[in-house]
Amino acid sequence: MTAIMSADNQNILTELRTPRLRHLAWLCQAPQLYVGEQSFMPQDWLPSGWHQTLLAWEQQPDQAPKRLQTPAPRRLGAYFEILYQVLIEDLLGWIIEAQNQQIIKGGQTLGELDFLVRNQHTGGLEHHEIAVKFYLGYPGQSGEASLWYGPNSRDRLDIKTDRLLTHQSNMALRPEGQQLLQQLGLDEPVTPKVFMPGYLFQPEGNALPLPEQVDADLHTGHWRRLSTFSVAGGVWVPLHKPDWLGPYWQSDCPEPSAVEARVRECTEQAWPCLLARLEQTELGWQERERCFLVPDVWPGAAVRS
After folding, report:
1. Does some domain include residue 39?
2. Of 191, 209, 227, at which residue does a domain stop?
3. Which Pfam families does this one have (predicted)?
4. In the chain, fewer beta carbons within 10 Å around the N or the C end?
């Protein structure tokens, strides 16, 4: 299930047929896994005509930013960074002063600054740390709080959030970060910002309380064990990265063999996999629901995501 959006925002997600533009549209308005003082909210800064800009790029692909015309990286994180660059520079019209700058002390890497951005409205320098994440709720034992694990259970929402807020977003404020800013010719105050959109997945048939830190309109789905899944009762397709970003769409009727093969492969390899249930509309086959399938050993053993 997805969060409720305004009519314009929902329309742009159903109108766009180019995956990268649909992913970008989702990024522009996606509810976040952390909402707080340091949150960067693109919708607060986007111009009113950004929807029309994306539609124009779809009609004239050669007019789209060059970053959207080159082959997409295989890593979801690298792909997400490209979309973020387009958001900052081509939709907001801001300046990226530097990107992926490592902070090194005594030959040891202390961290990395994802983006140093010039806010064209305030004129100020901002340090943006970004991540896109997917977490599955796991009930606590004996009255303990529920935990939210990634498909690779080494990743956990509370740990990631703490690191993002107390370590990553503060790197530019440390003496080593200030030294790097001076070397880049950016010897001025810097404001830390974090941007972490994503999805949460509830256990099948068990709605856990959502963490207080997340957006009230966060996109949610459900998860279950690979061994309990059946394709009966819906039209399902496997979602491969980068189609994890935003609602999926396809024009042709899905082939049941595709999801059957994917579930079989993941069962044999003990891999998690993400599925979408589609419904046919006048615009094609559109995503209505998401389900993460995980091995029986999850989260007790870390698995490939």
Report:
1. no
2. 209
3. DUF1853
4. N
Query: What is the mean pLDDT of the segment spanning 213-231?
Result: 94
**HSE-CB for 233 with a 13 A CA cutoff:** 3
Structural domain boundaries enclosing 199: 94-209
Q: Are 278 and 285 in contact (CB under 8 A)?
A: yes
The residue among 271, 274, 272, 273 whose CA lies nearest residue 289 is: 274
- Residue 120 CB contacts under 8 Å (≥ 6 apart), including other chains: 92, 93, 94, 95
Nearest to 151 by CA among 300, 303, 264, 32: 303
Predicted TM-score (pTM) of the model is 0.93
* Tokens (6 digits) for 38: 């340091």
- My answer on whether 67 and 132 are in the same domain is no
Supply 274's token pair.
Answer: 């993400």
- Mean pLDDT rounded to a whole number for the chain: 93
CA separation for the pair 243, 210 (Å, rounded):
24
Please name the residue ranges forming H helices in 102-204.
157-166, 175-183
**pLDDT tens for each residue of 93-123:** 999 999 999 999 888 999 999 999 999 999 9
In this structure, the chain runs to a length of: 305
d(CA 219, CA 211): 13
CB 15 within 8 A of CB 59: no
| Backbone angles phi and psi of 261, in degrees to 5 | -65, -40
The amino acid present at 185, given as its one-letter code, is G
| Burial (0-12, 13-18, 19+ Cβ within 10 Å), 267 | middle
Q: Which two tokens stand for residue 240?
A: 């491969």
Strand partners, 148: 137
Please indicate, yes or no, if residue 40 is contained in any of the structural domains: no
What residue has token string 């819906």?
234
